[in-house]
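To whoever is on call:

I kicked off a structure prediction for a single chain this morning and the downstream step that reads the tokens threw a length-mismatch warning. I double-checked the sequence; it's 271 residues and nothing unusual in it as far as I can see. Pasting both halves so you can look.
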Amino acid sequence: MELEFWGVRGTTPVSGKDKLKYGGHTPCATATGAAGEILIIDAGTGIKDLGERLMAEADTQDLELHVLLTHFHLDHIIGLPFFAPLYSSKTVITFYSPSSPQETEKTLRGVMMGRYFPVDFKETASRKNFVKVPEDSFSIGKLKIFLCPLHHPQGSVAYKIAENDGSVVFATDTEPPEQGMDERLISFIKGVTYFIYDAAFTPEEYRMRQGWGHSTWLEGTKLARQAGVRNLLLSHFNPDHADNRVDEMVKLAKQEFPRSAAARERLSLKF
């Protein structure tokens, strides 16, 4: 499997010379299976660059894409109107979410209708399918996908994608319970190769932002250590955090869990 990041910023896209190292695009990543299955996790602004590369590599070939949506907050779907494969008749896109197919289509269409966008979602040339994900697991090609509910306003899910001995969990947009740790998430991530976790706040910031649905680098290290994951990747960075602030969080995280690092745009990992 190959894992690649196209956006790791939360809440809103940002720019500036102090945010070049990790990037300013909102969440989007790809997991590509050994047999060529292309899974896209979330459709933040990072999906624009991904779409351009997919179209360039596909040339005249058909594209079959699978988009796993963790939830529908704007930073996770705002890039969809600018996703080039959406406008190609040679593209088949299947959208997966915890909502019904009708609700998923209605929600995605909402960001491209009326006065918000000049092209209606339904008018785009790609062929589209909508799937409500089951509560436990399902397969896409040879990739096995598992789900876990997360603590987030209006709900969100974590996805675990597994192939052979490799596995990755996307668990952004979550926060710890008021008491103790998220035991369901600990069980879900046990032993995974890469654990991608919400690091929107420092522990000090989080004290003033409980209930916002986001977490800290420190909580990520606790979960990683408890579950025995192989690697922790911090992500979903605060738009107000410059590169040096993220660097400091990674440094502190390594002291608690040595195999900690930060996700960044265009980071590619094979496992």
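Update from on-call: the warning came from a stale cache, not from the record. Cleared it. Sanity check on the structure: The CA atoms of residues 200 and 215 lie 6 Å apart.
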